[in-house]
Amino acid sequence: MKIGLTGGIASGKSTVSRFLQSLGAKVVDADEIAHELMKPKQKLWQKVVGHFGEEILKAEQEIDRDKLGTIIFNNPQQREKLDQLTHPIIISEIKARVEKLEQSYEIVIAEIPLLIEVGMIDFFAEVWLVYLKRTVQIKRLMQRDDINREAAVKKIESQMPLDEKKEYADRIIVNNGSQEELEKQVQKLWRKII
To answer: Where does ATP bind (predicted)?
Structure first.
């Protein structure tokens, strides 16, 4: 079974992925794939540097994610351009890896922050959403990224609202509480699908 796991920034997707992995799921991480494809001189790296210029590079030729993030979070057109350059290649790689793993594993989870936005819903048997209250999300993002409230709100508002994402989810994992509570929910869900 192919399951797409999504949520917003700082919602706890990676924590849920780790729990699922410990229960026996095979996990594909879209962010890890994107990092791999963005390594110096790779196809995606060339496209991104070709558009945004070498000023987004660190000394060792890696893309400076903070610099690129500043550009795209403050300019919707540039964000759209980055998405146009990167999404088709990343989506293709995610699908290829999930399909390969599905031949050997009963349950394959793909952790994809923008699963709904990039139109991958139909690729999966189920879509799981990690959901949390906006106030909790802001607080966690401020702590995680060591940023102020205004910067956290700006990052959150650059994404599709979690309340909208709920409409597309087959199952919702609520992450307003402790990690122990989250783990119990994940275990309960896991028992339903195995």
So the answer is: 10-15
Within a domain: residue 194? no
Residue 104: other Cβ atoms inside 10 A: 8
Residues 6 or more apart whose CB falls under 8 angstroms from that of 101 comprise 26, 28, 108
Total count of domains within the chain: 1
Asked whether residue 10 is assigned to any structural domain, the reply reads yes
Domain that holds residue 8: 2-189
Annotated binding site for ATP: 10-15
Lowest mean pLDDT among 65-74, 82-91, 157-166, 168-177: 65-74
Tokens of 129: 């959403």
Phi, psi for residue 7 in degrees, rounded to 5? 165, -175
The 10s digit of each residue's pLDDT in 56-69 is 999 999 999 889 98
> What pTM did the predictor assign?
0.92
CATH code for the domain in which residue 46 is found: 3.40.50.300
Tokens of 73: 């979070």
| Calpha distance 17→76 (Å, rounded) | 29
